[in-house]
Amino acid sequence: MAVHAHPDDESSKGAATMARYVADGVEVLVVTCTGGERGDILNPAMDRPEVKENIGKVREQEMARAREILGVRQSWLGFVDSGFPEGDPPPPLPEDCFAVQPLEVASEPLVRAVREFRPHVILTYDENGGYPHPDHVKCHEVSVEAFEAAGDPDRYPGTGEPWQPLKLYYHMTFHEERILALHAAMERVGLESPYAEWIKRFEDAPAPRWTVTTRVPCAEFFEIRDKALLAHATQIDPEGFWFACPMDVQREAWPTEDYHLARSLVDTELPEDDLFAGVREKVCL
């Protein structure tokens, strides 16, 4: 189970990993917390009045295409996008949005989903949300709550039979080591790297709290990842940053998607190359 804040997050974080496990016969469910109704349109070709007026429906249709490309199941928690508050000081969040919901209210449908789907592994964001969008931070909070509560019969009564997931991972998609490797690889082949600004931010940022514990080889599924990204046409510019690094360069420089193992109820040796390390010895997948 991969828990994400908005439609398109599943395609930018861990999509090749999911496609790899689908190809291996693993059942994969993407849970999308909000409909992305307050997201900006980031592709100039889609910045049209009829798209803006129906952005919620458009993003729902985009998600349907992306999940078909990835071969995953997908469900909505049904919360409203919080938007990204900007300003100094930032404005208050909308009263109806996901990020302001009490933890138990926001977590209840995810606990229900965990108990129904019965995943062994859950993917989510760290406590900073990967970046500090309020919906990403809330997504982390509800994912941790569901991981810890779904197996307890005394918590969240009426949401199904208890089920305890075995491993919880945080996405480590945009960590410094990977970005530096892609940057160097592009320069080696004489291409202009789009990562210079990222590298400057790394130089000014504090040391990361979480380390990469798990690198999943999935380079052969990068094309599927990119097709899923392009399905989110309001969010992804085909001429933009996401596709600046050629596929062959990516595959050679960094052929994995990376994670931090945040919780584990099974024995496993680090580093890992499989999200199901330790689980395979406990259950038949």
From TrEMBL:
Q: What is its EC number?
A: 3.5.1.115
**Which parts of the sequence bind Zn(2+)?**
H6, D9, H136
- Keywords from the UniProt entry: Hydrolase, Metal-binding, Zinc
**Catalytic activity line of the entry:** mycothiol S-conjugate + H2O = an N-acetyl-L-cysteine-S-conjugate + 1D-myo-inositol 2-amino-2-deoxy-alpha-D-glucopyranoside
> Required cofactors, per record?
Zn(2+)
PANTHER family per UniProt: N-ACETYLGLUCOSAMINYL-PHOSPHATIDYLINOSITOL DE-N-ACETYLASE, N-ACETYLGLUCOSAMINYL-PHOSPHATIDYLINOSITOL DE-N-ACETYLASE-RELATED
Q: What name does the UniProt record give this protein?
A: Mycothiol S-conjugate amidase
